[in-house]
Amino acid sequence: MAASQWYAHSPILIWGGGAIGGCVAALLARAGVPVKMVDIVADHVQASRTGGLRIEGPVVQCTQRVDAATPAELRGRHDCILLAVKAQHTRAALTQLLAHLSDDGVVVSLQNGLNETLIAGSVGAHRTVAGCVNFAADYLAPGRIGYGNRGALKLGELRPGLTPRVTALAELLRAFDGDTTAVPDIWPFKWGKLAYGSLLFATALANEPMSESLADPQHRPLFVALAREVIGVADLAGVQPLGFDGFDPAAFRAGASAAAAAHSLDRMAQHYRHSGKQRSGVWRDLAVRQRRTEVDSQMGEIVRIAQSRGTNAPITEQLIRRVHEIEERRRDMARANLVEFAAAVQAWAAP
Ligand SMILES: NC(=O)C1=CN([C@@H]2O[C@H](COP(=O)(O)OP(=O)(O)OC[C@H]3O[C@@H](n4cnc5c(N)ncnc54)[C@H](OP(=O)(O)O)[C@@H]3O)[C@@H](O)[C@H]2O)C=CC1
Ligand SMILES: CC(C)(CO)C(=O)C(=O)O
After folding, report:
1. What is the pTM of this model?
2. Which domains are seen in the chain, by residue range?
3. In CA terms, which of 28, 50, 304, 341 is 20 to 30 Å from 235?
């Protein structure tokens, strides 16, 4: 199957044209792929289809006119929908997009978390493809996206095995990033990103850049304990997380040396040191957008899975509590949060 098959009948829909969707929409359009970006932010839609969508930052700078619509303006059915809304907006987006997905079409999740279960429940498992996304971007203003740094982009079927369609989807997305790969088992990467993401949620308790917090020796007991807990829940779910972009799950497992974890955290810090995006999307939701984060959808799911296996995930629960306190303006974002959290984790671990 050729990548062009996905847009032989209708443009590729990019549902949610913010940081991730906007980057993909602009750069696919720039490569000559027919795309249509769908977003609820009318000003952003209008700017992107008239003056163009501007991509800023160290990776690429361009202004690309992108065909765009609000959900209400959209007509017709499409074979490929790249879904890039925040996890908590997935259900609403699915309700809107269902009528626009062709019978043999697919929804590809370009999201963090385990939204594929929800997507499959709505459009059917046979029309769902999973993604693991780690490039960094920010929605800056209507018609303006910052592309901070390149990062892993992997696609896979819900069931193990490489299919022609997922191979063709990866080929399609190589027009966005040439290193995009189709993998025979996506779940180790999805869980790898959840463990990685737990560290990003933790760094968002502070105002410092990700690279600074990840490299700070005082925070490391917290990062190691947190990642180890998430990896433990993945084990219970029958998945052995895999790493990318400096994150090495094996280095956080019980029995691994402190030096191995330190090396992995140093490499993660290095990944962001020269990025145009110095702070995570979680930090941006809290500090700039001043809105709820994806913590319940992403970290909450880890707690729910642990509980369904008869155990718990206490450090993740404490992380969620602290993020909620910042969301509700009951806690300031400060380095002291990480220092205090690391000390608490060490105290719980003490015999
Ligand atoms: N940003 C990043 O660097 C990375 C993000 N991710 C993940 O990618 C996913 C997308 O995140 P990101 O791009 O940052 O998010 P953004 O908020 O930047 O973009 C999402 C866009 O979708 C819009 N939207 C919300 N609901 C709908 C809807 N029903 N239909 C159409 N559009 C809608 C949003 O509008 P509004 O703002 O009004 O809600 C927003 O414009 C998340 O799961 C995130 O964790 C993964 C790796 C890196
Ligand atoms: C930091 C990043 C971009 C991963 O590289 C991310 O996942 C986020 O901001 O949510």
Report:
1. 0.98
2. 3-185 (3.40.50.720), 188-349 (1.10.1040.10)
3. 341
